[in-house]
Amino acid sequence: MPVHSLHVFDRKGKTLFTKCYAQNKANKMDDGEQLSEKRKLVFGMLFSLKEVAASLSPSSIKDNGVHSVQTGASTCYCLETASGLRFALYITDDADKAHARSIRKAMQHAYNDIWIQSVVRSPLYNPVTPNVQATNFETNLDAFLVSQSWYR
């Protein structure tokens, strides 16, 4: 399965949602402290790369965000929304490179159709302290991801 994990952060870096689809082979479950540290590193990387991209981009370009970051073992696809939410989807590099556009569209769908419908429009949603676990976001997201050809 090429999908490793998905993280959703607010504009200040607070983790709103994390799901690991592939477990680390060295230790089957990451303890809370390790997972928290990983989330901080992911947000810090996204924040720093956005700042670098903004400083290097010509001022005429409006979209100076980072769409993907490729490392030796995986690719992180990024989506930043107008409200400041940041979605980070890690996919192992054995995924087909031709799916990059479809992965980006899937992330936009995850925000526009799943996040908005399941979380923001939920009667249990509180913008100050959002509780994503109280909604059906994870269930809807999992069903959507499984239907994608690049998920396997």
From TrEMBL:
<dbReference type="GO" id="GO:0005783">
    <property type="term" value="C:endoplasmic reticulum"/>
</dbReference>
<keyword id="KW-0333">Golgi apparatus</keyword>
<keyword id="KW-0813">Transport</keyword>
<dbReference type="GO" id="GO:0030008">
    <property type="term" value="C:TRAPP complex"/>
</dbReference>
<dbReference type="GO" id="GO:0006888">
    <property type="term" value="P:endoplasmic reticulum to Golgi vesicle-mediated transport"/>
</dbReference>
<keyword id="KW-0256">Endoplasmic reticulum</keyword>
<keyword id="KW-0931">ER-Golgi transport</keyword>
<dbReference type="InterPro" id="IPR011012">
    <property type="entry name" value="Longin-like_dom_sf"/>
</dbReference>
<dbReference type="GO" id="GO:0005794">
    <property type="term" value="C:Golgi apparatus"/>
</dbReference>
<dbReference type="InterPro" id="IPR007233">
    <property type="entry name" value="TRAPPC"/>
</dbReference>
<comment type="similarity">
    <text>Belongs to the TRAPP small subunits family. BET5 subfamily.</text>
</comment>
<dbReference type="Pfam" id="PF04099">
    <property type="entry name" value="Sybindin"/>
</dbReference>
<comment type="subunit">
    <text>Part of the multisubunit transport protein particle (TRAPP) complex.</text>
</comment>
<protein>
    <recommendedName>
        <fullName>Trafficking protein particle complex subunit</fullName>
    </recommendedName>
</protein>
